[in-house]
Design a protein that fits this description.
Alpha-Beta Plaits; disordered N terminus; 10 helices; 6-stranded mixed beta sheet; Elongation Factor Tu (Ef-tu), domain 3
Length: 395
């Protein structure tokens, strides 16, 4: 058999897509790495630790333009009475969330399901606020899965709905306790938005879709903007001394502290949402009616409990337990595996998430993590590891 030439680093770099803000990342001395088919900044000169703490204390700007954005629209009847219920009923066949009763301008976290009840991806689903846009849903899916997700949506819902992929849009995330104050100076009334809502807004002759959400555990926003205007918007935000650019490294440690899943690691197509410990994504009506892909398995696990469960773990000492680390009971039985692990800068120590046999999932349970061949004591603990500080409107 003839040996085939292996791709060089230069070849691999040439195959990577560039984000609309690529030149900005380079000018800010971002360390660029391959991620989900894109060349992306993993960190800036400030470093991952300081970037992480800056988001917890002030505000950080993330470029998440690699995510997949799309409109799912009825083939007929957009803007007509009952149009939302029709498009919601369609997508509810493959997601377990309550979409039919989703209010106008509201955002919902959900998951795409296969027929075995496994999670194909997690996503955000938004119902537009405008009456003439009813019958459409705005979707944001993970970068690594977007091609598969869009194909799956088209295959399963193509008889009733059209999928329009928004490849000409960027997505920016402004996260942290000062995010609202920063953005309010640019876009008036944005600070009055409720958590998990979206509005169409204007800034500097630019139309934006602004959502109050994020994946850091902090208050914040995501701004969907045309790719050709992203650079100007990003530079205007970074001109504020309270805002710093944040890379993939701190994004990962922030979401880990917040107890949030990274698809492909903390849940896969083999895991149900019940096993992944995100049963909150299964709507109350859906639990009684079913009617979604894999409902038999998921409803059974809700009633009887899953065999395995994603849990939070606190290892003793300072050494982190990384993805793939074996989890053992105190008597040496293998009971699970770490799916995400690292150092929590806010906590000042190692944290991890992983799947364990459900018999060992109770908070406080003592376990061992096998790190470099040696057992490291750990205990099951509640998630999130740090308090979530999402915006809640005053009552």
């Amino acid at each position: 058999m003839t040996n085939q030439p292996q791709p060089t680093d230069t070849d691999q770099a040439a195959c990577l897509h560039h984000l609309p803000l690529h030149d900005l990342h380079v000018s800010l001395e971002g360390k660029m790495v391959p991620f989900a088919g894109y060349e992306m900044p993993v960190q800036y000169p400030m470093g991952v630790m300081k970037e992480h703490l800056h988001v917890r204390e002030k505000a950080g700007l993330f470029d998440v333009s690699h995510m997949g954005q799309a409109w799912l629209s009825l083939k007929q009847g957009v803007g007509e009475e009952g149009a939302h219920e029709k498009i919601a009923a369609a997508i509810e066949t493959i997601v377990p969330g309550e979409i039919q009763k989703l209010g106008a301008g509201r955002v919902r976290y959900s998951v795409l399901l296969n027929d075995a009840g496994g999670v194909l991806d997690d996503l955000m689903i938004t119902r537009p606020s405008s009456p003439n846009q009813q019958g459409r849903l705005f979707l944001v899916v993970n970068a690594a899965m977007k091609q598969a997700d869009f194909l799956y949506l088209a295959e399963r819902l193509g008889d009733v709905a059209d999928l329009t992929i928004l490849s000409d849009r960027a997505l920016l995330a402004l996260q942290g306790p000062l995010a609202a104050a920063v953005l309010e100076e640019k876009i008036k009334t944005v600070s009055t938005m409720g958590f998990m809502t979206m509005r169409d807004m204007e800034w500097a002759q630019t139309s934006l879709m602004v959502s109050r959400c994020g994946y850091t555990g902090e208050d914040g926003y995501e701004l969907s903007v045309s790719a050709d205007r992203a650079d100007a918007i990003a530079r205007a935000l970074l001109a504020d001394e309270r805002v710093q650019p944040i890379g993939l490294g701190a994004r990962d440690s922030l979401r880990l502290e917040a107890g949030l899943c990274l698809y492909g690691h903390d849940m896969t197509a083999d895991n149900s949402p019940v096993e992944a410990n995100i049963s909150f994504a299964i709507g109350k009506r859906r639990r009684s009616e079913g009617g979604f892909a894999g409902a038999e398995r998921i409803l059974r696990e809700l009633a009887q409990g899953p065999k395995i469960l994603r849990v939070g773990l606190r290892p003793e000492g300072r050494a982190p337990a990384r993805e793939g680390t074996e989890i053992q009971s105190l008597d040496g039985e293998t009971i699970g595996t770490i799916t995400s692990g690292g150092f929590g800068p806010t906590i000042g120590g190692p944290i991890a998430m992983g799947y364990v046999d459900a018999n060992y999932a109770e908070s406080g349970t003592k376990l061992n993590l096998i790190v470099r061949g040696k057992p490291v004591p750990a205990r099951v603990c509640p998630m999130p590891f740090v308090p979530q500080r999402y915006y809640r409107a005053p009552k």
